[in-house]
Specification:
heterodimer, A: mainly beta, ten-stranded mixed β-sheet, 10% helix, globular, B: alpha/beta, 2 domains
Chain lengths: 305, 241
């Protein structure tokens, strides 16, 4: 594992010189390190690049880390990772990704993750993305997340794009069976000429299934963001999606939410708000002794927390 | 000591909202500003806090001319201001805001003490977001706690009673009395409430942008209570105007 990978891993994962639990460290398209545990087995796919992660039924409190790092220009990494989470397991999956280029070549990581949650399984899935390096090459991360949830399963997805990613298109889809619950928290910061797009497609198939999607973003400079969400209620269910964006400078944000109810007891709500930082918010913090610039930073960091 | 000399504020459209006000407020006093709606009370305290700039006149704090100091500078000089309509902040918690106000990290026990002064239980509120999930009354009480957290030289409260229930109002009156007894700073409160007026050291009545009368509570309050419309008001949260 090279120094850049180590640096990126400290940002995007729980790496502090060591990773606990099961893990696979991906560096420039290859495997830099791997460890399975008694309950969590990580194996390479045979037909294409990527992993199969099998989590035994009833596994509690364990963590799987699968950080992926691209440390130079000219790397276009594509990986397919599948997670099979057994019945009543309760685990944390950490899938941070960092891309770095110090040259003119583009650095890209495209992780296609599929989650298969068995009955009663519970997963906390965290995903941090960052771009670093002074190179002129584009830093791109294009994650695809497909989630299949059986009865009574729960998935909480916490995804953060911290900084420095020139381009990202993230696609997240989920299909929920009866009483399954999906919670997504997304935070994105773009600046300069960055572009970030988010597409959610959630199908609430099962009775009493529920989804709560909240996306908060800050667009600065001349960056552009697009938020698309499509939530479909096919049964008695509850769904909420929320998109809040703070706009600054010459940035551009498009929010295109869609709800589809195909059952009379489907209760679906969408909220969307785009705007600059409210003047009264800055004023309030200035009455506490902050300068205008300090107030703006505090408001943004709180918003994306 | 806060001193206003010939302070005036006129809107860009030429409406004179605050006219030639002279006022002196001594340190450690609880001073209540009252008067009819639209009389210029809120504009006056905003001029003191630096949220608005006077069109003429000077403002002094402990002898220092702060007229040209902006809102941040005035906050640093010891002026705290509780907004009449609290501002919402998505993502920022009650604890975050109180710590910002105090200028330091706060242990739970301190947060608990502050929120207790406004009738809130810290365990229930400390991690709540300052967003739409809080009711108007809850937001208002947290706004007041924010100002209390600052331990300021001059704390300004604009209608602190608005939107809060009777129990919390009683607790708030007690808190003002505690602060008054401790004499840690000056309290400048805009209120129409008899119970707040009745604990004031001094009362200032503003009408049509000017000081109509000002003086010790025992001199001014009886005059206000003698107004004809007061006879039919119920006790408890009785309003003067």
């Amino acid at each position: 594992m090279n120094k850049i990978t180590e640096t990126l891993m400290r940002i995007v994962s729980e790496y502090d010189g060591d990773l606990k639990g099961a893990y696979n460290i991906r560096e420039d398209g290859g495997c830099a390190a791997r460890q399975s545990t008694e309950n969590i087995k990580i194996e390479s796919k045979e037909d294409k690049p990527g992993l199969e992660v099998h989590i035994k039924a009833g596994t509690k409190g364990e963590t799987v880390s699968i950080p992926a790092c691209v440390t130079r220009g000219g790397v276009d990494d594509l990986v397919y990772n599948d997670f099979f989470v057994g019945e009543d397991a309760d685990v944390t999956i950490v899938a941070g990704c960092g891309v770095h280029t110090d040259d003119g070549g583009d650095a890209r990581h495209n992780g296609i993750h599929r989650f298969f949650l068995a009955k009663g399984a519970k997963v906390l899935y965290t995903e941090k993305h960052v771009g670093t390096g002074e190179g002129t090459g584009k830093k791109s991360i294009d994650p695809v997340t497909e989630i299949f949830m059986e009865e009574d399963s729960v998935l909480e997805m916490d995804t953060v794009q911290i900084r420095g990613v020139d381009r990202s298109v993230r696609k997240t889809s989920a299909t929920l069976a009866a009483r399954a619950k999906l919670v997504v928290r997304e935070r994105i910061m773009t600046d300069g000429e960055d572009f970030a797009q988010t597409d959610f497609d959630v199908v609430l198939n099962g009775e009493d299934s529920g989804a709560d999607l909240v996306s908060r973003s800050v667009a600065r400079g001349k960056s552009r963001q697009v938020f698309n969400s499509w939530m479909r209620g096919m049964n008695r269910c509850t769904g909420h999606s929320e998109c809040d964006a703070i706009l600054a400078n010459d940035a551009n944000v498009v929010a295109a939410p869609a709800l589809e109810a195909d059952h009379v007891d489907a209760e679906l709500i969408h909220e969307a708000a785009i705007g600059k930082i409210a003047g009264e918010q800055i004023l309030k913090l200035r009455t506490l002794g902050l300068t205008e610039e300090e107030a703006e930073e505090k408001i943004i960091s709180g918003f994306l927390k | 000591m806060l001193r206003l000399e010939h302070v005036a504020w006129t809107t860009p459209d030429g409406d004179q909202i605050v006219r030639d006000i002279d006022l002196t407020i001594g340190n450690g006093k609880l001073v209540v500003i009252t008067g009819p709606n639209g009389s210029g009370k809120t504009s006056l305290v905003k001029l003191v806090a630096g949220i608005m700039e006077p069109t003429s006149g000077r403002i002094y704090l402990d002898g220092e001319d702060i007229t040209d100091a902006d809102v941040t500078e005035r906050a640093k000089k010891g002026i705290a201001y509780a907004f009449q309509q609290p501002v919402k902040f998505k993502g920022m918690t009650v604890k975050d805001m109180l710590e910002l106000a105090a200028g330091e990290d706060m242990p739970f026990v301190n947060v608990c003490g502050l929120l207790g002064k406004v009738g809130l239980c810290a365990e229930e509120y400390i991690d709540r977001e300052l967003s739409g999930s809080l009711s108007g009354g809850e937001s208002k009480r947290i706004e007041i706690a924010t100002v209390l957290a600052r331990n300021a030289k001059l704390s300004i409260f604009d209608e602190p009673e608005a939107g809060i229930d009777l129990w919390s109002f009683t607790r708030l009156v007690e808190t003002f009395q505690e602060l008054q007894n401790e004499q840690k700073g000056t309290l400048l409160v805009i209120s129409h409430q008899e119970r707040i007026l009745s604990i004031a050291d001094e009362i200032v009545v503003i009408a049509d942008g000017v000081v109509e009368k000002a003086g010790p509570r025992d001199e001014i309050l009886p005059q206000l209570l003698a107004q004809p419309h007061m006879a039919c008001c119920p006790q408890g949260k009785r309003e003067i105007w």
